[in-house]
Each structure stands twice: as structure tokens, then as C-alpha cells.
Amino acid sequence: DPKGGFRLYTDQSRGHFDGRAGFWESVCDDPDAPVTRWSPMRRLGHGHVLNKPVVLANGRWALSGYLNWAQWGAAKGAFAELDGERGATCYVSSDGGATWDKRGTAVFPGKDWQESQLVQLRNGTLRVFARVKEDGVGKMMAADSADEGRTWSKPFALASMDNPNARFQVVRLRSGRLLFVKHGVTSASGKDKQGRDHLTAYLSDDDGATWRG
């Protein structure tokens, strides 16, 4: 983290997903010490965290935790009391990760979307991405927040970032460019049948409007 600490995030669930799960954090303040010491794990929220927190322009940290729907097996329909929280929820820390403020939730369409991730655009907008599968076709979708994660726009598809229903990564580089790592051939328009292959890195100089790679 910006203070030199090392932070471990992990999920915990009964089975692959039990309808609630939870994401946890442990911190090592001095990772270069001869003997590393980790804080006790603490639970930050429901759902999963698969991507790193980001540091905003004002120095605050933002984290996206996502809570999906229990669709399979014995867990199908479990924890119905949490249905109002299902989506990608933004958590913001003003004290270097000591505490987290739970803010608004972006709700993606359908029940097959994963791995929400945050990027702050140059105009200050906070954008959350997720991989979404609709009618057998994978796509990249996003929602925007102009108030640091308190409220979110309706999710929209990003045609310039088509992606099969597979892992992706979008990060801001020190150069200011965005880096987008995805599977699949761009001309295939995200169809899942192409599988998890053709792993490619793309760069954008215009905040994701266009990509090269």
C-alpha cells in the first residue's frame, strides 16, 4: 500500500458460493522485517474481492466488493435477506485502510457477472467494471459514479472492450495510460466459445475510448 504495508485479501464461503460469502483482510505493516507479523484477519463485507483497492486523486482508497446471486445446488436462493445488497458495492477509506465506509451499489443485469474492479477516470469519475454474460455472450460492462461511489449510473456495455466471460484486468499505469488485459480475439465480440485463450494486453491513451495492443 502507499505506506509500505502489505495487505492480503481473501474470500471465505461454504462451497464455491453460499449466497453470502465474505471478504477478509490481514495487514503486515513491515513486510521487509526478518520475521513478518500479520494482523488478525478481519471481515470487511459480504461477497468477494478479486481486485486491488485503488488510491483516488484525493488520497482516499476505494475498494469494490461484489455480492452475486446464489444460483446453484443447495445454496440456490440462500440469504434472501441480502438480495437488496447484490451488486458491486464501493467501500472507501479516508484513513489509509484503518476503517472502510460502505457506500453505493452498482447493479449489473442478469445473474452471471463477476469480478468487479474500480478505476478513477481523469475527470474524477469512479468507474466500476464487471464481466457479464447475457444470452451466451460475454461482454464488459461498467457503471460510473460522480460522487465517490455513493450513487451509480445504470450499467452500460463497453463495445471497445469486448471480453468473453473470463477473467480480465483494468489498471491505471504510472504513465497515466490504462492497461486492459483480456482473453479472446476482439473480432469475436466476446463469444464464450473462443475460450480462455489469446491473452492480450491493450493500452489506452484516452481513458478507454480506444485501445491498441
Binned strand content: 35-45%
Stretches where pLDDT is under 50 for at least 5 consecutive residues are none
Compute the number of strand runs.
14
DSSP helix count? 0
Shape: globular
Estimated helix fraction:
under 10%
Instruction: Provide the residue-averaged pLDDT.
Output: 91
* Largest beta sheet: strand ordering: 4-5-6-7
Order of helices and strands: EEEEEEEEEEEEEE
Q: How far do the termini sit from each other? A: 29 Å
Task: Kindly provide the radius of gyration, computed on alpha-carbon positions and rounded to a whole number of angstroms.
Answer: 17 Å
Largest sheet at a glance?
A: 4 strands, antiparallel
Protein structure class: mainly beta
SSE blueprint:
Layout: E1 6-11, E2 23-28, E3 42-45, E4 54-55, E5 61-67, E6 87-93, E7 101-106, E8 113-120, E9 126-134, E10 137-145, E11 156-157, E12 169-172, E13 178-182, E14 200-204
Antiparallel strand pairs: 1-2, 2-3, 4-5, 5-6, 6-7, 8-9, 9-10, 10-11, 12-13, 13-14
